[in-house]
Automatic annotation (TrEMBL):
Residues 1-12 have a biased composition (Low complexity). The keyword Hydrolase does not apply. It comes from Nocardioides simplex (Arthrobacter simplex). Its EC number is 1.2.7.3. This is 2-oxoglutarate oxidoreductase, beta subunit. One of its GO terms (molecular function) is 2-oxoglutarate synthase activity. Keywords: Oxidoreductase. One of its GO terms (biological process) is cellular respiration. Gene3D superfamilies: 3.40.50.970. It is an enzyme of class 1 (oxidoreductase). Residues 1-23 are annotated as: Disordered.
Length: 271
């Protein structure tokens, strides 16, 4: 039988950096990230990977990653990953899950990727009740391309394309994607978390765990929107990003569960 030589071009596929992960970091993170100081996205990645380990599903997990600053995570996350075209992650995840129903399939997308470029993908996937888990990193800007306004940018927010602040008359209103997904019959679990405080980090990890568990239970599409800091795109010092997020985004996008298979007690949700 003839064989085909396969040449791997190491110039276009550089190996991940040698592991320099800090002590205590999950073993699924293979090296250091290259994102800005004060960025919230690496914290969210860690919560997601820790959750896959906690639920003992790493061996059957498949991630589908969109395009944004988090796109560089594909080189440092030790999980099977497909990087797809902008906004298309829920559709690619749909195909993977239907072909491999025993796998745990998650997407990792930004607000620009999910709510601008791929709005129809997430809505139709939720309406179809696809049994996948979508993780949205919402920082209210297209961070990777320099901090332009997205569909989730809150009113008053300064961005590269709304230098005087977003105003409804000129730019319209922000889209509350988690609320929209929660309103669809095909979604099983929807929550909104943040990584701006230690308490928010702990709560968000519980949300991710419930979202993946919802997929394991076959409840339809689960979504966790995570508010993440982008001090670079927000024109604020790195150390002030968390406070800025708390005062600007969280009043518009309240933290908490929007839809859950079994209603949780207030104590459980807010613990
Ligand atoms: C079809 C298409 N639209 C837009 C872009 C440019 N682009 C690449 S990454 C990106 C930003 C994505 O923003 P988001 O998903 O919010 O991620 P963030 O960088 O903020 O984490 C954009 C606009 C592109 N390459 N192709
Ligand atoms: S531009 Fe924003 S989202 Fe991108 S790495 Fe920097 S802080 Fe993070
Ligand atoms: Mg963004």
């Amino acid at each position: 039988m003839a064989t085909t030589d396969i040449t791997i071009d190491t110039r276009t596929a550089p190996p991940p950096p040698a592991s320099k992960a800090a002590a205590g970091a999950p073993s699924l993170i293979l090296g250091e990230h290259s994102l800005c100081p004060g960025c919230g996205e690496p914290v969210a990645l860690r919560l997601l990977l820790e959750t896959l380990q906690d639920l003992d599903v790493v061996h059957r997990s498949i991630g589908v990653v969109g395009h944004g600053c988090y796109g560089s995570f594909v080189r440092i996350m030790d999980v099977d990953v497909l990087q797809c075209l902008h906004g298309r992650a829920p559709s690619c995840a749909t195909g993977i899950k239907r072909m491999r129903p025993d796998s745990v399939v998650f997407t990792l997308q930004g607000d620009g990727d999910m709510v601008n470029e791929g709005l129809q993908e997430i809505l139709h996937s939720a309406a179809r009740g696809e049994n996948i888990t979508c993780i949205l990193l919402n920082n209210g800007v297209f961070g990777d391309t320099g901090g332009q306004q997205t569909a989730t940018t809150v009113l008053g927010q300064r961005t590269k394309t709304s230098l005087e602040g977003r105003n409804a008359e000129q730019h319209g209103y922000p889209i509350p994607i988690a609320d929209m997904v929660a309103s669809l019959q095909g979604s099983g679990y929807v929550a909104r978390g943040a990584v701006s405080t230690p308490a928010a980090v702990a709560k968000t990890k519980r949300m991710i765990k419930r979202a993946v568990q919802s997929q394991l239970d076959g409840n339809g599409l689960s979504l966790v929107e995570i508010l993440t800091m982008c001090p670079t795109g927000w024109f604020v010092p790195a150390a002030e990003g968390a406070d800025y997020q708390g005062s600007s985004m969280e009043p518009v996008y309240p933290i908490g569960e929007l839809k859950s298979p079994e209603p949780q007690t207030q104590e459980a949700v807010h613990a």
